[in-house]
TrEMBL record:
This is 6-phosphogluconate dehydrogenase, decarboxylating. Keywords: Gluconate utilization, NADP, Oxidoreductase, Pentose shunt. The gene is gndA. Belongs to the 6-phosphogluconate dehydrogenase family. The keyword NADP applies. Gene3D superfamilies: 6-Phosphogluconate Dehydrogenase, domain 3, N-(1-d-carboxylethyl)-l-norvaline Dehydrogenase, domain 2, NAD(P)-binding Rossmann-like Domain. Catalyzes the oxidative decarboxylation of 6-phosphogluconate to ribulose 5-phosphate and CO(2), with concomitant reduction of NADP to NADPH. GO terms for molecular function: phosphogluconate dehydrogenase (decarboxylating) activity. It catalyses: 6-phospho-D-gluconate + NADP(+) = D-ribulose 5-phosphate + CO2 + NADPH. It comes from Jiella mangrovi. Pathway: Carbohydrate degradation; pentose phosphate pathway; D-ribulose 5-phosphate from D-glucose 6-phosphate (oxidative stage): step 3/3. Its EC number is 1.1.1.44.
Length: 475
């Protein structure tokens, strides 16, 4: 087999890289694998004898490159940031015209734009692709958001189409636009993931502190919700999380887990990029901020003592059928608003970067494989599919009725939670955004007046064209 060449190569045999390589091998492609410590690459072959014929571990980067068919495709599955630049620098001298470097990590899309520009005119190609679905997704079918060199996409499309998750036989992969488009979409995916998770956690907070339910009862409710509009991977795993018993203490697992959320930064990127585009993704922002505050546990404990005399009202939540369906409806409505914000950020980025992002296709490739996968995304895909311009999901005829119907449940849940002192930052951000979004006459006129008074920043009047300055009384 010394002459056999690999169809594609993966650099970085961490969990994601190894699982992606195994997925590729399982689909019948020959995959070269390389790792900084070569043993790890050989272990991938040794530990998977049934796929061994399709796995080509390399001793060195040189051997890895030599083992690839031309034009060569090398996928980097290394930590985002400097490791990607380092790998690029090492491999570039070994590659030839037409070869493709693919960064499949969770890159900052700004880095992807820079890397794409760096290879321009060199004959080498760069693709930045977001891969979602965690370890199991990488192994058995992720959702793949591709951006970068469109002319090179046909080289990897056959492999990606085979390894991607399928939604009713349709592969969850697509080329979405040039340079950073794929990684930008993955970043927004993660921002939405944060908002979705935070909203579920807030409802859990109401169930725990307002309804005093046991986790096993909550699991039952989430399982029930998973049969309707909310049906999704995140609701499904929430029920599993809540049902689990800690073998050490026999207590519900969620009760022995410290209430400090980790984050690797992609949710924060989503919020920063949305702000830069002038599209406040406030539910995503609330979710990122809540993770930040969650990790200040000692400080929260001190604050809890300082304010223990503050009277909050009695929780007005009820665990009966109307009470639970109110919670369900509130969560559905807030979720629509969060997705609308994520989509608004993508639409703005698309305009700003001339990416022409196919927003309907994005919903389609998120229907399976990724962390936010759900049937609900099929509704979004259909909204974009109808051919009418979707200015914002909240203006899409498919969603107006749903939001109009669900907003009162969201309003009641946010109001009751506030009165009871139960924090619901993402749910209330969703409600505030909705109310602000649907208000024809806002309050920014006062802000303009203030700006003009202290800084002569000018403002527009309803009855004249152009910016004007008013001579305000001296203060
Ligand atoms: C995915 C996920 C994944 C992400 C984890 C953890 O789409 O598979 O988004 O890429 O790394 O969800 O992210 P945090 O550590 O930031 O929560």
């Amino acid at each position: 087999m010394a002459d056999a060449k690999a169809d594609i190569g993966v650099i970085g045999m961490g969990t994601m890289g190894a699982n992606l390589a195994l997925n590729i091998a399982e689909k019948g492609f020959k995959v070269a694998v390389q790792n900084r410590t070569a043993e790890k690459a050989f272990a991938v072959k040794d530990d998977n004898p049934e796929l061994a014929d399709n796995i080509f571990p390399a001793e060195s980067l040189e051997d890895f490159v030599k083992s690839l068919k031309t034009p060569r495709v090398a996928i980097f599955m290394v930590p985002a940031g400097k490791p990607v630049d380092d790998e690029m620098e090492k491999i570039r001298p070994l590659l030839e015209e037409g070869d493709v470097m693919v960064d499949a990590g969770n890159a900052d899309f700004n880095d992807t734009v820079r890397r794409s520009q760096a290879v321009e005119g060199t004959g080498l190609k760069f693709i930045g692709m977001g891969v979602s679905g965690g370890e199991l997704g990488a192994r058995h079918g992720p959702s793949i958001m591709v951006g970068g060199a469109k002319d090179s996409y046909p080289l990897i499309e056959p492999v990606l189409t085979k390894i991607a998750a399928k939604y009713k036989d349709e592969p969850c992969v697509a080329w979405l636009g040039p340079d950073g488009a794929g990684h930008f979409v993955k970043t927004i995916h993660n921002g939405i993931e944060y908002a979705d998770m935070q909203m579920i956690a807030e409802i859990y907070g109401i169930m725990r502190d307002g309804l005093k339910l046991e986790p096993s009862k909550m699991a039952e409710i989430f399982r029930d919700w998973n049969t309707r509009e909310l049906a999704s991977y995140l609701i499904e795993i929430t029920a599993v999380n809540l049902d689990e018993i800690d073998p050490k203490t026999d207590k519900p697992m969620v009760e022995v887990i410290v209430d400090e959320a980790g984050q690797k930064g992609t949710g924060r990127w989503a919020v920063i990029e949305a702000e830069k585009l002038g599209v406040g993704a406030t539910t995503l922002e609330a979710a990122v901020a809540a993770r930040g505050l969650s990790s200040r546990r000692a400080e929260r404990a001190d604050a809890a003592k300082l304010y223990d005399k503050v009277e909050a009202g009695q929780p007005q939540f009820f665990a009966d059928e109307p009470g639970l369906s109110e919670l369900e409806s509130a969560l559905v409505t807030a979720k629509i608003i969060a997705y609308a914000q994520g989509y608004a950020a993508m639409a703005a980025a698309s305009d700003e970067n001339s990416w022409n992002l196919p927003l309907g296709t994005i919903a389609e490739i998120w229907r399976a494989g990724c962390i936010i996968r759900s049937h609900f995304l099929d509704d979004i895909a259909k909204a974009y599919d109808k051919g009418h311009t979707v200015v914002n999901i909240l203006q899409s005829p498919d969603f107006v009725g749903r939001v109009a119907k669900g907003q009162s449940a969201l309003r009641r849940v946010v109001a009751k939670a506030s009165l009871a002192g139960i924090p619901v930052p993402a749910l209330s951000a969703a409600l505030a955004y909705f109310d602000d979004y649907r208000r024809e006459r806002g309050t920014a006129n006062l802000i303009q007046a203030q700006r003009d008074l202290f800084g002569a920043h000018t403002f527009h009047r309803f009855d004249t064209d152009g910016a004007v300055h008013h001579k305000w009384p001296a203060v």
